[in-house]
Design brief:
With about 90 residues, the protein is an alpha+beta fold. The chain has helices at about 30-35, 75-90, and strands at about 5-10, 15-20, 25, 40-45, 50, 55-60, 65, 70-75. The protein contains 2 helices and 8 strands; from the N terminus they run E-E-E-H-E-E-E-E-E-H.
């Protein structure tokens, strides 16, 4: 279930999918994984990480705390885009 995915981490030709209750390793690239996920819910925030926007707990400086587990670094290249996506949500 996509709602259970917290984040996805690149491991070269594999990805680690962290869910609320499990860790799954799949042979694919982060780029291919991003293409297969709904863009309104998943966004790349670092060259090695895709996050589930619905699982963001907090954002402090260059780190995102994910619910229920994980702290992800936001790279400068993806920071502006991430904030463009979440700003309308925060204003509601």
């Amino acid at each position: 279930d996509l709602r259970d995915i917290v984040y996805i981490e690149s491991l070269e030709n594999y990805v680690r999918i962290m869910t609320v209750s499990d860790c799954i390793i799949v042979r694919t690239t982060l780029k291919d994984m991003l293409k297969s996920l709904p863009a309104e819910k998943f966004v790349q925030v670092h060259k090695s990480f895709i996050i589930n926007l619905t699982r963001i707990g907090s954002i402090e400086k260059n780190f995102i705390t994910m619910n229920p587990v994980g702290e992800i670094n936001i790279s400068r290249n993806y920071r502006k885009y991430l904030f463009q996506l979440i700003e309308p949500v925060r204003l509601k």
